[in-house]
Amino acid sequence: MIHRKGQVESASGPKKGPRDPINLFGVLVPQSLRQSQQFFKRSVELSVETTNIQNEIQGMQARKKFLLRIKDKLEKGNTPA
Q1: pLDDT above 60 (res 3)
Q2: Disulfide-capable partner of 7 in 3, 27, 31, 54 (CB 3.0 to 4.6 Å)?
């Protein structure tokens, strides 16, 4: 059963969702480490966004190529002999 705040209940009782791995370094984590973690998270988000945009561009290029082939076929069909 799933509860609020991402807690999942199992036979052994409620469990918390994923923990922040930065806490493995202790309670008093240097600010530079926290900042590095934020930069890394942002870089992953940007990488995903970039990949999605690349996929969209490739899809548009394929669509353009397809439409140009259809156009060429139509123009050949309308050419007087």
Answers
A1: no
A2: 3
